[in-house]
Amino acid sequence: MTVCYHQRKGQLSPNYICQKASVEDTHPVCQNVPGGIIDEAIGKLIIESVTPLSLEVSLQVQQELQSRLAEADRLRRQRVERAQYEADQARIRYMRVDPNNRLVADTLEALWNEKLRHLAEAKDEYEKQRQSDQRAISAEQRQQILALARDFPQLWNDPKTSDRDRKRMARLLIEDVSLKREQSMITVAARFRGGAAKVFSLPMPLSAPELRRTKSEIVAEIDRLLNDMSDPQIAVELNRQGWKSSMDNPFTAWMVYCLRRSHGLKSRRERLRELGLLTIQEVAELVDTKPLLVDYWREQGLLKGTRLNEKNEYFYERPEAAAVQAIRRRTRVNKRRPNPGSNL
Prior knowledge:
It contains 14 helices and 8 strands. It is of the alpha+beta class and 344 residues long. Helix content is 58%, strand content 14%. It has helices spanning 20-25, 35-49, 52-96, 102-133, 139-157, 163-173, 208-211, 216-225, 231-240, 253-262, 268-274, 280-287, 294-299, 321-336; strands spanning 2-8, 11-18, 31-34, 174-182, 185-192, 197-203, 305-307, 314-316.
């Protein structure tokens, strides 16, 4: 897979692309994986791997291997000794042959040379393996390695550490990483230098439209609050609860209105109408009074109203017959009452 970089939130972010067939044979791109979450996950995996406990286990394993190398050295030394013995025997046989018997002498000389060559090869291999095996870790080196586990997370997360340096550190620990994108999941298989492997899955990061989409929890809360509040009141309540918009802004009445319309939520007016509540005009016709007096009768306790919004608009429950009669009777009394300012 190849890598390409693009700007994301003011920083370079990689994408890992499998496009060999696309470049060479104009086939569709095999897979395109956002690399930001991959790099973050691999970084966490490396930090989790470089811990005092994991390094202590590795050092113990190395110590165990070192003890086993002594046995391997003994076996290799026996091979050299056996090659030396065979070379010595070939020399003795050659030295004992009658010089007049040239055919036998030439054969024994060739055999001696072959044994000497095997001896040289055995000695050379023994020296190389012995030097490699003698690279034991000293006590000072052991402490330095364990100290690395304490300093490594700080070094890795330091803003001053460049991506190039992080890549160099990752190459020292990780052999390769395989990626496979399947719908909304990415399977990551990381193989370490020592042969250990780690396989895990990551969800695909949200696209730009999805990042700007309001959370379903917020929409559900707006739907619930619409039973008792207007758009401005809902905005105040959402901000009080600590909710933020998809762009990390506080809510306004206009935002609540747009969300309500875009998600097909019924307005508070529609909900009150579905409950059977009446408008001020409908109540005025029902009790045979003027619309301007409906609020007055509500304040007098003869009508039950539910506030619609902050504009002091109300919806009313259907009044009972006794309340209608009381309003009509008091209205007629008020109509018959003479105006104090008129002449009798």
